[in-house]
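Second attempt. The first submission of tRNA-specific adenosine deaminase had a stray character pasted in from the spreadsheet, which I only caught after the job came back as garbage. Lesson logged: always re-copy from the clean sequence file. Corrected sequence (147 aa) follows.
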Amino acid sequence: MSHALELAKVAGDAGEIPVGAVITDASGNLIAEGENRKERDQDPTAHAEIVALRAATRILQTWRLHECTLYVTLEPCPMCAGAIIQARLGKLVYGVDDTKTGAIRTVLNIPDSAASNHRLQVIGGILESACRQHLQNWFINRRLQNK
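This time the job returned cleanly.
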């Protein structure tokens, strides 16, 4: 999660909403990473999770990531939650709940819904304080710059 937080800082410095994600294999080895790139790529799907999932599937040469763990600094949105389910991800670990668009436990619960064909192990609240503080500071600074 610490590496995901570093990637979030890179994204924030580039003007993106500061979210970072990493994927590890069954042995805990880092195999892929991603950071928000919507603005830089002009791609509405370029969320950190999607970027990391795409990289992992290219590296592993399979779309099935059942032995992998995704670490992300912010609770995934509905699009990312759907992609995580479709990838058959083994475990999701996230930092802070997203009270506006969180689709894992906060606003929606896509993994446990009838629409999910995969049961996902979820752990929330890892480095929660650091993840929350980083997001809050970024938004405060962004608002100050726009005044």
